[in-house]
Fold:
Amino acid sequence: MGEFDLIERYFKRPARQAVLGVGDDCALLQPAPGTQLAISCDMLVEGRHFLSTVDPLRLGHKALAVNLSDLAACGAKPLAFTLALALPRAEESWAAPFAQGLFALADAHGCELIGGDTTRGPLNICITVFGEVPVLAGRSQALLRSGAQAGDELYVSGNLGDARLALEVFRGTLSVPAPVFEAARLRMEMPTPRVALGLALRGIATAAIDVSDGLLGDLGHILKQSGIGATVNADICATLVAARAGCAPEPGQPGAEIGPDQWRSLALAGGDDYELLFTAPASQREAVAAAARNSQTPVTRIGQIDQQLGLRLINGKGQTLPNNYTSFDHFV
Amino acid sequence: MGEFDLIERYFKRPARQAVLGVGDDCALLQPAPGTQLAISCDMLVEGRHFLSTVDPLRLGHKALAVNLSDLAACGAKPLAFTLALALPRAEESWAAPFAQGLFALADAHGCELIGGDTTRGPLNICITVFGEVPVLAGRSQALLRSGAQAGDELYVSGNLGDARLALEVFRGTLSVPAPVFEAARLRMEMPTPRVALGLALRGIATAAIDVSDGLLGDLGHILKQSGIGATVNADICATLVAARAGCAPEPGQPGAEIGPDQWRSLALAGGDDYELLFTAPASQREAVAAAARNSQTPVTRIGQIDQQLGLRLINGKGQTLPNNYTSFDHFV
Structure:
């Protein structure tokens, strides 16, 4: 099967929202009047962003999910995406389930494939995604990293650390009961982009980012770009590792060797969570709760924004903790 | 040097046209009222689209040039692009000249980098480019592959086959004089996107495509999508290989072993030309000539569009030639 057959068979579908989709030199997109286009791009490499043994269906899901997560962090409504694929071979047994996982998530968000490229090479998946953000009275409604203010409260959606836990089990550095591993593995391989929450937070959140490199590292981007500091309750974060509930605390049982500091580490610096980390004024506490309810997305308050620069970690008793948690850098 | 340092140092520049550029979860782009966004995406893989020994400066140029070429084929004005990079190592000695070549071409076309991704992995460069196409009286002014009509004339810009010639010299299958090789190599490593010609052809050309996989293969896309056929003068095409003039016809001299059929083959199926192949009504012959003059881009009439389906090749005397020329497919 050649390049054009592969595109024709698995990746060409009629355009619905776009003016022109797959099959010409360019796709054509016409944003609605009074909107801006939010654009993000993520590249996934075998052995770094996914294991070579991953189910191609899950990989198709994840490749788009991590991009939709960026739209969510901007409060943008998904519209369309391009897909560039480097494949070692043009294998139908890979392309068919990959396309299935990709389009299932795309259809769930009304996000259509409008173009791309396929070539032979070491497995590499690059998606660029397009979303829509309204402009009201000349002001963009996009959620940025730069809007956090002293006095704001700090929230995170869903769970933290489970994807990293699964990775560590694969690496053999941690051991947990089989059902706990399977659930954590699903979080690693099929993350849920928090699109509905991102949309619901427009006009409420002052800053937002998606947690991809680890909570503290990504929080650092908000702090730097907003020119403020924060205090984070590490023990509240540690309760957000879903796997924790399923790990027996008894000595000799799998999971027992994971101590309180490791749970904190998974939550604070795990990475690959694709949750939304955001700030909102204390006066918006009710509005944040309503956004969480309406988007059916759990949200937890984990700290606050301070005038004082830098990041302070506290435990459940309010005592200061040293910050030994480092974020994930692809070249370190 | 880590991922964020690399981005900060070489790839972060203030946004000029975009509402928001590099540095948040998404970039924000606001197309002008009455325009559509043309979007294209190309992925370059080491060993397939470029040799591992290529000068990073030239590679930076080429990675963007092949994308701008797609905008040119749609008659779109370049606006912005995203860049995703997988690199084996975060090396300044590579990133600095790569960024230099990339931005020199970007600046020449007023096309700004608004976002992207860097990761570690086998060298892979994926660019998604955004251009603007006006909509007049409800009609998109984009040049498509599907608009060619019987009676139209067929044109190609610039030169053909030189990039492939350089590749074959690298492979050791052809030999040419050193200055001829250097010129051909420049065509292979630093192709010229025909942006000005694409813009000048709006409202004149009925269909267009950029020649990346080989002239006949790319012409096939126009024929299929327009539902028509064509006759191409192979000998006129063969005169468009710039290297030909510098190759001595004397036996025993380098280049002498390249026969008439090989020149045709280089021109018709060479690939990597990034010239514009387009159709226009015979009544627009003067307008095509003016577009070529105004964009300072040579254009040659190489054939015509027929009602009869299929592709017919003729030689300089009008005699039918067999079509043994195949196009480049990344998986064949």
Remarks:
- Chain A is about 35% helix and 25% strand.
- The longest helix of chain A spans residues 56-74.
- The longest strand of chain A covers residues 124-136.
